[in-house]
């Protein structure tokens, strides 16, 4: 099992990859773990703490293998509103509960949770279920997600 020790820089985005690693968000925030590549190969991630892996990131194993990171499809709740103030309130209350959120135009998405869905509905937003990759905001001092 090869150790993967560094994330390639954004300047390396065009570096060709030889393997793919698909992980849900919960696993993309862990810096040390064993993981199974999509082709069945195994790697040991030993990455710097404090930075979540993002869809499209590339990892380099000690043997030189370049691995493309993919965000796994997950069950998400999407709360939408045409009213910016209602959406801002929902984001505030989710953030106050330390819930990772993916901010979108007119909506906010988070990992599916029926309790949070009820809270957001009480704030006047329409909540729907969807499946897709989850790429939440990285925080004020962390890596940001931008469209």
Helix-strand pattern: EEHEEEEEHEEHE
Q: What CATH architecture of the largest domain would you give?
A: Sandwich
The coarse overall form would be elongated
* Radius of gyration (Å): 17 Å
Q: Helix coverage percent of residues? A: 10-25%
Name the poorly predicted regions. none
Please summarize the sheet with the most strands.
6 strands, mixed
Taking the alpha carbons of the first and last residues, their distance comes to: 35 Å
Q: Helix tally?
A: 3
Return the structural class.
alpha+beta
Instruction: Report the CATH topology name of the largest domain.
Output: HSP40/DNAj peptide-binding domain
* Strand order across the largest sheet: 2-6-5-1-4-3
Description:
The protein has 147 residues and is α+β, with helices and mostly antiparallel strands. The protein folds into 2 domains: 2-71, Urease metallochaperone UreE, N-terminal domain (HSP40/DNAj peptide-binding domain); 73-133, Alpha-Beta Plaits. Helix content is 18%, strand content 37%. It contains 3 helices and 10 strands. It has helices at 25-28, 84-96, 114-122; strands at 2-7, 19-23, 32-36, 42-46, 58-61, 66-71, 73-80, 102-104, 107-111, 126-133. A 6-stranded mixed sheet has the order 2-6-5-1-4-3. A hairpin with a 4-residue loop joins strand 5 (58-61) and strand 6 (66-71). It is elongated. The mean pLDDT is 88. This is Urease accessory protein UreE. Involved in urease metallocenter assembly. Binds nickel. Probably functions as a nickel donor during metallocenter assembly. Pfam families: UreE_C (PF05194), UreE_N (PF02814).
